[in-house]
């Protein structure tokens, strides 16, 4: 009799335990992780601004020309003769026959004075996507040629006028990319090009004893470094991470920023992270986060912001094979 009673008690305990575990799993499957203290920190994900003093690194930018059209031409010219531009970006110097054949870089110089700050706004799908956009690669190459191969080399031979012209072209491209910043990749390139040009422009201002421009460029460099260290890098470390521990720990933050980040670029990056979360939720990942990612992305297809809608479409279209190829 006691054996039967013990068996019934054990069976009941097993049934209750199974019910508890299944209930816990089902509750977890229907909810997403809450945000951590990281997301709740004051100012986290706030709207970004072009670093103070940036105007000193650019020409007046008062021309009525269409910068976006000029940059499109530059990209097309680069693609038509990629090998020549890539070779010049590595070893080219001004004054050589090759330097006279850089029509794409001439377009960058022409675009520097354009008043508009648009680069990809009329074709956002070229950059709002997973993987490195080829258009950004082209602009990185051309910006490097303008800043490093031409600007810095003209500076070394004391041709301040030509050095300034090319350095400002690279800086202006960087400023326009950063101001538009549909994605982090675009903003990152913008900051990179400005950081490559600013020190040389600062030296030229010092040589010319232009105290006002020198002060502005120093202000820019200080602001840019703080912006990257305090505002950009912490967000990138969470939203673009593929580390299992980071992904699992900050899943709730990703949902929070996709909904609430004041800076649209961070909303887009959080949406890209949700697309990856459909396949990987990190260490101790929750089924609710995986399911919730798809549900939230479907809701963003109706967002008021067309860039957010575009990012959500890209995230939902991401296949498992494409996800596995992401770095």
C-alpha termini separation: 64 Å
Question: Rough shape?
Answer: elongated
Question: Beta-sheet strand percentage?
Answer: under 5%
Mean pLDDT rating: 91
Helix percentage: 55-70%
Low-confidence stretches: 15-29
Q: Main beta sheet: strand number and arrangement?
A: none
Number of strands: 0
The value of Rg in angstroms is 26 Å
Number of helices: 15
Task: Please indicate the count of domains.
Answer: 2
Topology pattern, helix = H, strand = E: HHHHHHHHHHHHHHH
Helices and strands: which structural class? mainly alpha
Describe the structure.
This protein has 327 residues and is mostly helical. It has two domains: 103 residues, no CATH class; 148 residues, no CATH class. It is 69% helix and 0% strand. Helix 8 runs antiparallel to helix 9, helix 11 packs across helix 12 and helix 12 packs parallel to helix 14. The longest helix is centred in the C-terminal third of the chain and has 29 residues.
């Amino acid at each position: 009799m006691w054996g039967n009673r013990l068996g019934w008690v054990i069976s009941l305990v097993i049934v209750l335990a199974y019910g508890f575990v299944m209930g816990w799993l089902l509750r977890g499957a229907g909810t997403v992780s809450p945000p951590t203290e990281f997301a709740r920190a004051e100012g986290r994900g706030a709207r970004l601004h072009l670093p103070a003093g940036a105007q000193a690194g650019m020409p007046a930018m008062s021309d009525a020309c269409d910068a976006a059209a000029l940059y499109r031409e530059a990209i097309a010219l680069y693609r038509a003769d990629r090998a020549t531009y890539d070779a010049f970006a590595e070893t080219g110097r001004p004054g050589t026959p090759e330097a006279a054949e850089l029509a794409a870089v001439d377009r960058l110089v022409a675009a520097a004075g354009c008043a508009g700050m648009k680069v990809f706004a009329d074709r956002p799908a070229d950059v709002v996507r997973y993987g490195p956009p080829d258009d950004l690669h082209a602009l990185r190459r051309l910006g490097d040629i303008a800043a490093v191969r031409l600007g810095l080399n003209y500076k070394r031979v004391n041709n301040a006028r030509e050095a300034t012209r090319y350095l400002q072209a690279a800086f202006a491209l960087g400023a326009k990319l950063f101001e538009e910043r549909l994605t982090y990749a675009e903003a990152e390139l913008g900051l990179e090009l400005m950081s490559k040009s600013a020190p040389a422009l600062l030296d030229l201002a010092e040589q010319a004893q232009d105290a006002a421009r020198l002060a502005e460029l120093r202000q820019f460099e200080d602001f840019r470094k703080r912006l990257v260290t305090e505002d950009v890098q912490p967000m990138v470390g969470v939203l673009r991470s593929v580390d299992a521990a980071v992904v699992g720990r900050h899943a709730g933050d990703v949902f929070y920023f996709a909904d609430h980040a004041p800076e649209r670029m961070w909303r887009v990056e959080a949406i890209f992270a949700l697309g990856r979360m459909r396949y990987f939720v990190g260490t101790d990942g929750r089924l609710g986060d995986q399911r919730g990612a798809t549900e939230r992305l479907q809701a963003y297809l109706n967002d008021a912001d067309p860039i957010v809608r575009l990012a959500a479409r890209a995230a939902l279209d991401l296949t498992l094979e494409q996800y596995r190829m992401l770095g």
